[in-house]
Design brief:
By secondary structure, the protein is of the alpha/beta class. It has 2 domains: 131 residues, Rossmann fold, CATH 3.40.50.2300; 67 residues, Winged helix-like DNA-binding domain superfamily/Winged helix DNA-binding domain (Arc Repressor Mutant, subunit A), CATH 1.10.10.10. Helices cover 50% and strands 13% of the residues. The chain is built from 11 helices and 6 strands. It has a 6-stranded parallel beta sheet with strand order 2-1-3-4-5-6, sandwiched between helices. Strand 1, helix 1 and strand 2 form a beta-alpha-beta unit. It is elongated. The two termini are 32 Å apart.
Length: 220
């Protein structure tokens, strides 16, 4: 199986070292180039043609959003993921408008980051659950036609109950079982049971994968 090639754009050396170490431990991911500035990222993306560009927003010259626009101007098929610490509605919207496939916060766990990279390589759009509430009513214009509608998701996963849909939406927002129980005025034991049922019905391994699948297939 061919490795997914990655151009890592990040001006903090320590983070680049950490990510490179993570990807080196994953046989199907490979960092083929690194860039510390937006302009350097544009040039290296043009030359190296990576499968994924992992793009920081706050760069020392042009922003990661501007670099994204320039990269996609050269190659509209390039898949770019924003990897940032910024939880800001404007930057999320601008990133999606520029053509980014994913908006990922830097506190993401390594297992999920790896999964998101693979999903984006396959054409999925992914938003960190923490930023979804910021753009919930504005995101439809950025979701390409190949993304399923909520109706399509329901048709495909019709074995989920109405309550399980409610719980799944809260899982996508990053709520714990205790928080779900409080939001829906149910016991924590019941919330946990609903989450377990959702995981089983969506044929995934854990709540994180359930959230990724829900976002990828257009539930939120």
């Amino acid at each position: 199986m061919k490795s997914i090639s990655i151009l890592m754009v990040e001006d903090h050396k320590l983070l680049r070292v950490g990510l490179r170490s993570l990807f080196n431990e994953t046989s199907d991911l490979k960092v083929i180039a690194e860039a510390e500035t937006g302009k350097d990222a544009v040039e290296k993306a043009k030359i190296m043609k990576p499968d994924i560009v992992l793009m920081d927003i706050g760069l020392p010259d042009i922003s990661g959003i501007e670099a994204t626009k320039r990269i996609l101007n050269d190659n509209v098929e390039q898949k770019i993921m924003m990897l940032t610490s910024h939880v800001n509605e404007k930057e999320v919207m601008d990133s999606l408008s520029a053509g980014a496939y994913a908006y990922v916060l830097k506190d993401i766990n390594t297992e999920l980051l790896t999964m998101v990279i693979k999903s984006v390589k396959d054409g999925a759009i992914w938003l960190d659950p923490k930023v979804v509430p910021l753009i919930r009513d504005k995101s439809s214009c950025f979701i390409p036609p190949k993304q399923n509608s909520r109706a399509a998701f329901r048709a495909q996963h019709g074995n989920l109950t109405e309550r399980e849909y409610e719980v799944l939406k809260l899982v996508v927002e990053g709520q714990s079982n205790a928080e779900i129980a409080s939001t829906l005025t149910i016991s924590e034991h019941t919330a946990k049971a609903h989450v377990c049922n959702i995981i089983q019905k969506l044929v995934v391994d854990d709540r994180t994968q359930a959230a990724v699948k829900a976002i990828k297939e257009g539930l939120v």
